[in-house]
Amino acid sequence: MKQKTFHLLSTLIVLLALALSACGTSATPTAAPVTEAPVATQAPTEAPTEAPTEAPAAPANPNLILATTTSTQDSGLLDVLVPMFEEQTGYKVQTVAVGTGEALKMGEEGNADVLLVHAPSSEVTFMDGGSGQDRFLVMHNDFILVGPAADPAGIKGLGPKDAFVAIYNAGAPFVTRADDSGTYKKEVSFWTKAALEPKGQSWYIETGQGMGASLTVASEKGAYILTDRATYLANKDKLQLEILLEGNNALLNVYHVITVNQTKWPKVNYEGALAFANFMIDPATQEVIGTFGVDKYGQQLFVPDADKTDADLGL
What mean pLDDT do residues 201-214 have? Predict the structure, then answer.
């Protein structure tokens, strides 16, 4: 009996072993999931970045002397335009603000490279004499006659010639720059038309100074003075002066830019002068000129004219 039981157990053990062996050999191992390589996609586009603004190539001679009128300086216009020009071109501008007569003299002597002036008849003489090489119309505004609100000479409503006659006859204080500037030349033209000579009269006050300083003197003296509109508006809040005569065609104030003749003066920076002249008549600069003063004074101080001719302005 024991022997049968032993054989039975042995048989069962063998069968169990075979079964386990069969299970081990027939089981198919589960393959690890294959991770596919990600499909290549276009790299995300980065936000475009602006190319860095390249500094302008340094000019061979970066130093430029600009001789100009005190009105362009005193009005604040050059404080806007000169930095623009320097940034765009790499030139460094030395501005000499004097009367137009002195600016033209600097050009005649080769002591300036480029001029920005407002005395057309004197400019023509300058060009005819061979001192200038290029001349371009830039802009205009107008002259105005200002004085105390009381208007002791009664000039309001008169024309320029009659106004100067009235001032002379009244012996009313009148301030003159007496500096051969474009403004002074215009003033003298009115005295000449009226056949009057105010020089030497006690009421005729000569300053020998620029427009801004002369306006201050006129305000302190309660005097009349001829001024460009731009400088008056730029200083109006500090003055006790009112506009008494304006709007006459004879009061037009026209500015040109002139390059000094390099043939006559080989050492002048003609390349820089021409760059400045072209900058002044460039449409972008003309737009700046046309809007200058509007935000502060409610009106433009200069009218851009590069697209016009002298004949268009009656010159």
Answer: 96
